[in-house]
Prior knowledge:
Radius of gyration: 15 Å
Structural class: alpha+beta
Strand content: 5-15%
CATH class of the domain at 5-56: Mainly Alpha
Shape: elongated
Number of strands: 3
Helix content: 25-40%
CATH architecture of the domain at 5-56: Orthogonal Bundle
CATH topology of the domain at 5-56: Multidrug-efflux Transporter Regulator, Chain: A, Domain 2
Strand order of the largest sheet: 1-3-2
Order of helices and strands: EHHEEH
Largest sheet: 3 strands, antiparallel
Amino acid sequence: MTSHLVGLSEIATMLGVSRQRAGQLVRDYDDFPPPVAELASGRIWETTAVEAWAKAHPVRPPGRPTGESGQREES
């Protein structure tokens, strides 16, 4: 069985977010899967663990939700 591993850039691609946003998700969600290793180039995760997490946590864009017109809500 081949193990598929991903770094932060691949996680960003999988989730459809920026690399910076992927880093925020990894940092901010206590239940994000732990990395399987930390290399000189960065941390790596099991692809299947990240996919399972993503399925349970649909990623919403940062910021305030927009109104019906698609414009930002005024405070």
